[in-house]
Amino acid sequence: xxxxxxxxxxxxxxxxxxxxxxxxxxxxxxxxxxxxxxxxxxxxxxxxxxxxxxxxxxxxxxxxxxxxxxxxxxxxxxxxxxxxxxxxxxxxxxxxxxxxxxxxxxxxxxxxxxxxxxx
Length: 119
What we know:
single chain, globular, 4-stranded antiparallel beta sheet, mainly beta
């Protein structure tokens, strides 16, 4: 069974950067679209970015455009987070999907990586 593991979260000051990683055990990410979601306290879960197996990227959150980018290699999918803002504070999850735009998400969710942006 696929297990997803997010890593790289932490505490960072506004304007700082973090890089999250999403890796898998029990299967490979190589054939799946992979996306990043986030959920801030008291907020709905939000889809941010999705990268297909052919490296086509879809962006879903206007608030992160130009600051958060998604990439992948054979082992993992990454979320590079630059110019972080306080409002980026959230639990970040990676997911896999049955389709190339992360609209049909598989039931495999990791524990998430906490990102806290604070001075």
